[in-house]
Specification:
Helices cover 20% and strands 33% of the residues. The protein is of the alpha+beta class. Strands 1-3-4-5-2 form a five-stranded antiparallel beta sheet, covered by helices on one side. The longest helix has 13 residues. The radius of gyration is 17 Å and the shape is elongated.
Length: 148
């Protein structure tokens, strides 16, 4: 089944809250090799004007991809995950993700198109606090490889 082009323009309901913790931020910072102490030392973060440690900018992908899952597992979307290749990722940060944040994501399917026998799906995930404060806009393009 090909990717359902009618999904362009679809918006999924907000996700369950994702709790951003200092431990998760530390693990991610170590995994990506960030040596900036603002990611692991609360006092350094506070001295720089933050309420707690802040996440590296790409940490947002952890939450955004959980939102993308809604589309991937939707049987009507026609996406065969075994054929998915991650094509592009962009972030626009409105403020840093901070330990103690509780983040919800709203997934928008911005584009579904065919190119060279492959489907390309662009999503936009608006990450915000539970009270609605915008935190990050994550845009992702996945490629669903066509037939052999």
């Amino acid at each position: 089944m090909p990717v359902n082009a009618d999904f362009q323009g679809r918006t999924y309901p907000p996700t369950e809250p994702y709790g951003v913790s200092a431990a998760k931020i530390r693990e991610f910072a170590e995994a990506v090799g960030s040596a900036d102490p603002v990611h692991v030392d609360r006092e350094v973060a506070r001295a720089r004007g933050y309420g707690d440690v802040i996440a590296p900018p790409t940490f947002a992908v952890l939450i955004a991809q959980q939102c993308d899952r809604q589309l991937i597992i939707d049987p009507e979307a026609g996406i065969d995950y075994s054929r998915v290749v991650h094509g592009e990722q962009k972030f626009v940060h409105h403020r840093p993700l901070t330990a103690g944040d509780s983040i919800v994501g709203t997934l928008h399917v911005d584009a579904v198109r065919e190119a060279g026998g492959h489907a390309m799906v662009t999503t936009r995930t608006e990450l915000a606090t539970e009270s609605g404060e915008p935190v990050c806009t994550a845009t992702s393009t996945i490629v669903i490889r066509g037939g052999e």
